[in-house]
Design goal:
The chain has 15 helices and 14 strands. By secondary structure, it is of the alpha/beta class. Strand 10, helix 12 and strand 11 form a beta-alpha-beta unit. The protein is globular. It binds adenosine-5'-diphosphate (ADP) and magnesium ion. Adenosine-5'-diphosphate binds next to helix 3.
């Protein structure tokens, strides 16, 4: 479907036109009309398939076309697992609202709290945030979510992996179920934990699942190299990175220390490389990402910090120097390339220490990889024997995605059913509840 066929507000169409996009991607085609109709969504589709616009556009359309429940509270809250990703989404949102009277603010850990507090006092309609810092502000009553209309969790599963379950529940409690619509997005949403959270946060969700999350991305060419030991791995790595076809590359390592060590190794060899990891100050993290996006250096060596969501078109290659411990991170890491229909290449280096993590990935993806070999660097390592595993408990049938969705449908958490007094744009019209007395004076700037 073309973007002009959805009935979007003209200001949105103008921005889309400015971006040069004409046709919606599949996930956009399927998710946007349902989101505009006011439904809760649980959306999974492969990396690089355009999920960000699949939630930003309906959010913008709603804010442009539907009267706010509250002039004070944010109308749209977008939560993301990492600061880098939040910044990227914030930048995209800003492109859309540039020139309008709408306000957006970004709330991230590691940045100035007081400044964020001031920005929140300006009553932005949109907040893009990482969960920890947002909850700090909620606890200090620097913002309220009673009037929230849209709660969006991008990379929802990763937020749980990072231990944000309590923060997400806190946000859920602060934002009225009756009033808000909730959208979950990720390339991987099959975990039991996600179903638990979905059951709590979503009401009668519409499921968009484009391909199994474990289908291998056809735009990414996967190559796997066996390595005997660290020296051999480094030799394989340096040989791979020599290739002229590499525009920009993200190298993933298991440890923060290795990001620094490998970046140094590459710089010593005459490449331009920089390390990204959670030990860097926020300003250093910003600088590294900005410089990489501008193409000021060629190799970004990162922990899983850069595994999710980051969208940089010139990343032609991804190298897994180590194999991720969490199998689904393989899908996300390699998904930093091959975006928006372009081709990408992913190389994975598998040494003895990586072997069982690698097998876990093969099991997750339900496929066996063939191994590639570089001339002069043939490995003698051929893999390890299968691990003897204690018989595992039968998977709890009650937490598989479909069973959980059925449960949510049958028993929408005893929440009130969605209203259906849709206005012309398909969004539901609600009345704002009275705010509980907080003892905090209302901001009178509005
Ligand atoms: P995902 O979140 O699914 O990994 P993104 O939302 O980051 O994917 O989008 C991947 C890339 O595709 C981005 O560069 C984005 O600008 C581009 N893109 C999104 N929608 C379209 C579209 N309809 N047509 C062309 N490119 C698009
Ligand atoms: Mg994304």
């Amino acid at each position: 479907m073309q973007f002009t066929d959805f009935g979007f507000d003209a200001r949105i169409l103008k921005a889309i036109h400015h971006l040069g996009f004409e046709d919606a991607t599949e996930v956009q085609n399927r998710a946007i009309p349902e989101a505009m109709a006011g439904r809760d969504l649980l959306v999974s589709s492969k990396t690089g398939s355009g999920k960000t616009l699949a939630y930003l556009i309906p959010a913008l359309h709603r804010v442009y076309r539907v009267k706010a429940l509250s002039n004070r509270d944010a109308r749209v809250l977008i939560l993301l697992p990492t600061r880098e990703l939040a910044k990227q989404v914030f930048a995209q949102l800003r492109l859309f609202i540039a020139g309008s009277k709408l306000r957006a603010t970004i709330i991230l850990g590691g940045e100035n709290f007081n400044e964020q507090q001031k920005n929140l006092q300006k009553n932005p309609q949109f907040i893009v945030a990482t969960p920890g810092r947002l909850v700090d502000h909620l606890k200090q009553r620097n913002l309220f979510l009673d009037g929230l209309e849209l709660l969006i969790l991008d990379e929802a599963d990763r937020m749980l992996d990072l231990g944000f379950a309590d923060e997400l529940k806190f946000v859920d409690d602060a934002a009225s179920h009756r009033l808000r619509q909730t959208l979950f997005f990720s390339a991987t949403l099959d975990k039991a934990e996600i179903n638990e959270l979905a059951q709590r946060l979503l009401k009668e969700p519409y499921r968009v699942a484009i391909g199994a999350s474990t289908d291998l991305h056809t735009d990414i060419q996967q190559q796997v190299y066996l390595c005997d030991h660290l020296d051999h791995k480094e030799a394989v790595f340096l040989r791979l990175i020599e290739q002229k076809s590499i525009k920009q590359v993200i190298v993933f390592t298991a440890t923060k220390a290795d990001t620094v060590r490998l970046a140094q190794l590459l710089n010593d060899q005459g490449y331009s490389a920089a390390a990204l990891n959670g030990d860097l100050s926020q300003s250093a993290r910003n600088k590294v990402m900005n410089d990489f996006m501008k193409g000021l250096f060629h190799v970004l060596v990162s922990t899983d910090l850069a595994a999710r969501g980051i969208d940089i078109g010139s990343v032609s290659h991804v190298i897994n120097f180590d194999i991720p411990k969490q199998a689904e991170e393989f899908i996300h890491r390699t998904g930093r390339t091959g975006r928006a229909g372009f081709q990408g290449n992913a190389y994975s280096l598998v040494g003895p220490k990586d072997w069982y993590n690698f097998v876990a990935i093969e099991n997750l993806l339900e496929r066996k990889f063939e191994f590639d070999v570089l001339e002069g660097l043939e490995p003698s390592f051929k893999g390890l024997k299968p691990k003897k595993v204690a018989p595992t408990k039968v998977k709890n049938k009650n937490t598989t995605p479909d069973v959980v969705l059925e449960k949510v449908k049958k028993n929408p958490k005893k929440r009130k059913k969605q209203f259906h007094n849709n206005n012309q744009d398909g969004f539901e019209a609600f009345k704002m509840p009275k705010r509980k007395a907080t003892g905090i004076p209302l901001d009178d700037s509005e």
